[in-house]
Amino acid sequence: MKSTRIAAWLLSALTVASVMTACGGDSADAGTVTENAQNGNDAVTEAVETKELTELEKRQQTPDNLPEKDWGGKDFRIICSEEFDFDEEFWVEEQNGDQCNDAVYQRNEKIESRFNVDISILPQGSNRDDVAKFFNNIVMAGDDAAELCAYVDYHAYKTIGAGSCMNWTDIEYIDLDQPWHNKLANDGATINGKLYAICSDLSVSSMTYTTAIFFNTRLTSNYDLDPDTLYDLVRTGEWTIDKFIELTKELYVDSNGDGKKDAEDTYGFGYMICNPADVWLTAFDQPLTVVKDDGTLEMTFMSEKTESALQKMRDYQENSLGFYEYTTQYDEELYFAKGTLAFSPMRFFAAYKALRDMKDTYSILPFPKWDTAQENYYTNADDKFQVFSIPKTASDPSFVGMIFEALSAESYRSVYPAYYDVALKGKYSSDPSTAEMIDIIMSGRKFEVSFQFGEDHFARLPYLFRDLLLSPNAKLASKWATVEKSINKKLEAFYSQFEDQ
Hints:
The chain has helices at 6-13, 17-23, 55-60, 99-115, 129-140, 156-161, 183-189, 205-208, 217-222, 227-235, 241-248, 280-283, 304-319, 331-338, 397-424, 432-443, 450-453, 464-470, 476-496; strands at residues 33-36, 44-47, 74-80, 117-123, 148-152, 211-216, 252-253, 266-271, 289-291, 297-299, 323-325, 341-347, 362-365, 379-380, 386-389, 445-446. With 501 residues, the protein is α/β, with parallel strands linked by helices.
């Protein structure tokens, strides 16, 4: 793994830092039953005199319950993109002393040795669009060219719509109840018992692409907003959108002295109205869709809360001195790194590159709640996190199931903990409150299935709130009526994709 990306792993690793800290203290309890599952399979249970297991130890000792099998050197080939270095979630060429790089290498080596397989990748360049295209082409050609395909979540409709994918719930050895499978994502993506695009801990990007509110501690402290005050707002449940607006709407400095608001000035909050805006309704606990007991979807976007939220965010963004709308995607990362933005909505991924040389100290908070009555803080992952599908032309689904399950389980046991360990030795090791905030953020992630079909059957539903913010004069009711009509026309075709193919 390139050294320029270490900062991101440091940040993403903090997702369970508070849990590990809380569980890591000495315990006087004895006689705990432990399981020795070094290889994830030969679990030997023994009663020993030991202290209570830490979160890390629990992970490392969770068996995958897979049988031992020699696959005779069989290839396990993963189609993926090199964009954003996605390929290095699955395969690295050699160990280089970086803990995260080496964890991926050692995971693969361990699985290769255990099952006598050869793990490799089939990179499709730096254009994420090429992955689904290649995947569909090999299926159309009847070519057994790969066992697995990894691609961005919002492209799932391309492979599912083409009928190219196997159903994960039919695959031998896949146990969706295991902790390395992302239940938050998979439950919502399962329609009529069919799951074609799965998310597991093999997808590090499902964590690193989680969105949060970053804040510059120097700038906020200048306005009597020290970190502890902000953390306490979160802890007491008072970190609401109204409080956030109150704290940021007047925070402005004409930094370049030209007498007008522009990108070079200092603001309380700003972003390009793009991916971060997709988080607002999730943060306010307003779902776009709900999967009903019969497996069908209910469209829940339109509500009084949605109307109120749109009015509130439009008013804030159009009439606040302290808000600035940037013109290029991820400009907020650039200006936050420059130290001219007090609060910014960003993915944990930003710490990989955009913030790695930032001079100011920064910390992280969850997105604000709608009001104090809302119980939890919520967020979602940028729609570019990776999910996995099996091509229908894969000759041995049980082989795919066994190796995918083993890789996901070993990622849970060893790759993620490597990130955590790096983080605990990194920039925020002396700031347990930041780790606590990130743990709150990760526990409140939501995954909306409509993102997988937003550009097709769902008429840009996941991006509708963003589009309305970009069009201040657009009427919510009329816009929704158009979108709802389009979705209803396509629902039958949508459900047909989840019938027996």
